[in-house]
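Narrative summary of target 7.
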Amino acid sequence: MPNLPHPIRLLLVLAVLGGLVLAASGCGTSSADPERGRMLFRQKCGVCHALAQAGTTAQVGPNLDDAFAAARAVGEEGETIEGIVKAQVEFPRPSNSDPAVSMPADVVTGQDLEDVAAYVGEWAGVPGAAPPTVPGGPGAQVFANNGCGTCHTLAAAKAGGTTGPNLDEVLPGQSAAMIEESIADPNAKIAKGYPAGVMPSNFSTLIKPSELKALVKYLMESTAKGGGK
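Modeled conformation, tokenized:
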């Protein structure tokens, strides 16, 4: 199919793979968490793929909104797209030197794959999709866009995650530079009681410098500015 636009070629290949998997396993995932899938998508998939609702704009791999727009237009439901995504992740085409047509195996697996597939199935190709807006200004939006509340507690964001430290407790007294380092290089200093490697280390590439500064400002203001500048 060399003369077809790339997103259409991708869609046709995915449809074949998806049909095989759906026939074997059925549609949908009752245990999937699309909200968690959004966070994982930004961390694991957004470095290569654009998806409007995730706020990602990378152009290494196919734009997923473009790839699935045709399927949406002919009435395909999210569960079908979800199955296609799972098939492509579980059975990627043979690896080669072109990341636009080749994806590494096992980018996400297990429950992570269930959640990512459910998220992409819900939003890919949806006309007018955009990241959800939250109150609190630009920094609050960065906090929400990157799923920080999934892992951290922060009263100002009404977030209650417990995977990582409670930000209301650990940020007071920290300077802007310290907070920025904890985001951009989370393993440089590990919070007491938490193991290394839990927080993704690629936020410095996912978050623009201006957004990172807005996030740090928001965190300092939300935790009574903590102390340092």
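Residues 1-9, 16-29 have pLDDT under 50 and may be disordered.
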